[in-house]
Amino acid sequence: MANWVPLWLHRLGSPPVFYRFAGAVRPWALGLAIVLAGVALYGGLFVAPADYQQGDAYRIIFLHVPSAWMSLFIYGAMAVAAFVGLVWRIKIAEVVAMESAPVGAAFTFITLVTGSLWGKPMWGTWWTWDARLTSELVLLFIYLGVIGLYHSFEDRRQGARAASFLVLVGAVNVPIVHFSVNWWNTLHQGSTVRLLGPSHIETSMLWPLLTMMAATKLYYVASLFARVRADLIASEGGKGWVRELLAGRDGDAA
Amino acid sequence: MNPTRKRRLAIVVSVVVAAVVAVGLIVFALQRNMNYLFTPSQVQEGQATQYPTFRLGGMVKAGSIQRAADSLKVSFIVVDDAGAMPVEYTGILPDLFRDNQSVIATGRMDSGRFIASEVLAKHDENYMPKELKDAMAKAHENRKIDDKAMKDPQP
Prior knowledge:
Chain B: Heme binds at residues 123, 127. Chain B: Heme chaperone required for the biogenesis of c-type cytochromes. Transiently binds heme delivered by CcmC and transfers the heme to apo-cytochromes in a process facilitated by CcmF and CcmH. The structure holds two protein chains of two kinds. Chain A is mainly alpha-helical. Helices cover 76% and strands 0% of the residues of chain A. Chain A has nine helices and no strands. Chain A has helices spanning 7-12, 15-47, 61-88, 91-122, 131-151, 156-170, 173-183, 203-235, 240-253. The longest helix of chain A is centred in the N-terminal third of the chain and has 33 residues, at 15-47. By secondary structure, chain B is of the alpha+beta class. Chain B is extended, with a radius of gyration of 25 Å. Chain B starts with a helix and ends with a helix. The interface between A and B is large, with 45 and 41 residues.
């Protein structure tokens, strides 16, 4: 690997090192995610005031919007990992990409369900084929396609390589989801929270939303690391470090 | 970077570029006829004549909502900045349906009137407490009065 890559990052590419690192980080990430989600739900459901237009029904935003952000963020992370895995054939990158897909699919599913529950009372319909809703549904199908393709090969690495190409091709959908509300006339409204410029939401409603965003990010890390550890144990089953690990465990138990 | 990786990088990048170009062309081609709705002025220009049913989007004109006394029939006028279209609908309306609300109605044209089979309410991306909204509306009104006062010639 090139000289500019720091040594610790290089070392993290080794399965046993990543396994131990993920094991150390996971409980902290999960614990912090639960605490932050609790704070965000309390802030969103009890502290934040009702909306002038939608009343209390808007409170589903604290689940819907962070899930929608995660559905796109995880796709981005998965695409970067798939790219690194395809070009440099780093095993950890392939595993990270493939194990991100189920988490991303789950967030996409939550986004679609909460959006549907929100749409019925406010818009008057559970579902409509507007550009934002349709492109988010396509995102779910791409996630499911990646999961399916990965598991349809006998050899895991071969499956990861094929599915990584699907991930990169499917990445064109991510900007379409994001900009759909600007490019076309849609029933779905535009973005409320903006990175550039002022957000269209009052501060008392914004902070629970951002707290929930941090919680979902940490949950992704915790969930991903657990999945990667399980995947590594399965795919490296014959290697020395896994045997040592399992032997050590047995020794502890005895 | 060694030659194998360079070759892989070239393959991966070309696949991604090909996908982006293909989807870009599709989106560009669909841009004109992928509109979810037509505005009243677009309908009056005749842009929607080729569709037996289509969606009409715009604002409910303030004071135009008329409800029948003995049925769920309701009629109102949908406007945009340049056109207006009378709409008839029979059924239950969403909670947000009211004067000056953006709505999207699905239906067909019948002798100059739009007969809707479904009416959806569209809301904007702003979220704020009611007190703040009221305060803003009040400030807005006060400013209007101030503007008026400014324009009046001082005695």
